[in-house]
Write a structure and sequence with these properties.
The longest helix has 28 residues. Helix 11 packs across helix 12 and helix 17 packs antiparallel against helix 18. The chain is globular and about 65 Å long. The chain is an alpha+beta fold and about 550 residues long. A hairpin with a 2-residue loop joins strand 14 and strand 15.
Amino acid sequence: MSVHDARPLSRRTVLAGATALGLASVAGCSNAGRGGSSAGNDEASRAKIRPAYERYTGVEPDMAGAEYNIPDAFRRYPANPVQAITEPPGDGQPIQVMTPTAWAIPPKVEQNTFWQELNKRVGSPISVNLTPSVDYPKKFATAVAGDQLGDIFTVGAVPQIPQMLAAKATDLSPYLSGDNIKKYPFLANLPEDCWNSAIFNGKIYAIPIPRGAISSSVLYSRADILEAQGLKAEVKSTDDFVELCKALTNGRMNRFALAATPTQYVRNMFDMPNLWRKNGDALVSYLEHEAHEEVLEILQKLWKSGYIHPDAYSGQNTDLKTRFANGSSPLVQDTFSAWPTYLQKMTAPNARIATIPPPKHDGSGMGRTWLGRPAIYVTAISKKAEPRVETLLSYLNYLATPFGTQEYLFRKYGLAGIHHQMVDGNPVISAKGFSETQLGLQYEADAPWTIFLPEREGSADAEFNAMKAVCPDAIANPAAGLYSETDVRKGQQLTDAVNQVADDIVQGRKPVSAWRDAVKKWKNDGGDRIADELAQALKTSR
């Protein structure tokens, strides 16, 4: 029986899986997207269904990234932003949205100037049902089971996602397949590969929220601290890396080289596959790579030597950003998308960010980082709202207007003089602006990421050049955007179990030899089945 068979979607099935699922499963590196053992996934059907790509060229970037498979970069916001939308996309009727948020809930519309202006510009009152990201999977499962989804909803991780979308979401294929999408030019501007997460069984059911290279990981360094010690932001082998960590660690200053364990960075030194690698028609997990025990030995050495912050396994994700920003940990592994946050958190006027590409472990050349996942979420339109589908697509098209447009400036920074001020030609958002604009709009639809870092002069160039150095040769995940029912149901549980063994090894609670048994258990408990399902999806859908 196919993982996409049309079994009924019961309330019990939906709720049973919600507590074990994370939102990232929907559009993650391998957990959601274009499945395909059913009819309509042959080459001709795929070519006909896939939306056409038409790159937006209305704003000229300072640094063009297409050649390197990285985002465009801007040093300044265009002085005369382009008006991209000439007519409000709404129809005067309310638009009900259900989406997650990573920030505090904004003021209600009655006390929110930005929200009121948004309603005016859209031409319909927007009703947003916001839920903290950590709580969204359970909230979404309850809404699906109770048939209480909004007109537009961010797809959360529930079992039987293809069946759920077929039952609850509008088939967008007639409106977005092929050249049809050109009616919505800013949706047509979304990168081709991110649509993999929105197509199921030969039908388009959602709009992807693009990311790609900007979600690739990098080792950040505090260039000012390294330079003060006469150190360079480069390493040529694992031995070099360990020596750099040793030089940066200073117990008297309460300084630890690494804000957290640099697991992926060390894996990249061994050219490990990005979650999966193809082996003929099969897929093999990176967990089975022969160098894993050597990686764990290196990480264990870093931990035992005191080069990793002692709170690395007990703190929150925001803590590592604070350690890097205040200089107590001058090295941290994070995604390129985190660059703005680090700039905002660093208060020292001479603080500067550099990156250190991974070397090959033996000093024989450059290592290879992992290419970030093409999409982070997908957004669907309720089947109940199908009579208004063109209005709702026009609204999502409005939310996808790109950097350099008037619409983007308003959407991200609000109204000038109320939510942001122009400083040296760049918008600087105020506390009021940040609070009022957090409506989760970027999780409904969004433009491709743009590198724009007005916080410090030269930062846009620095990030662009850092990405240019590693992303063109980054390792892609061959299963990106594919769907596995077992992964959705059990993937997080299996991953947590094997990660716990890795953590125990690094911290000295288990021997390195425990890794082999952990991987064997992962395979037996569902990993092999996930690999088989993804391999079948890969074979039939690409």
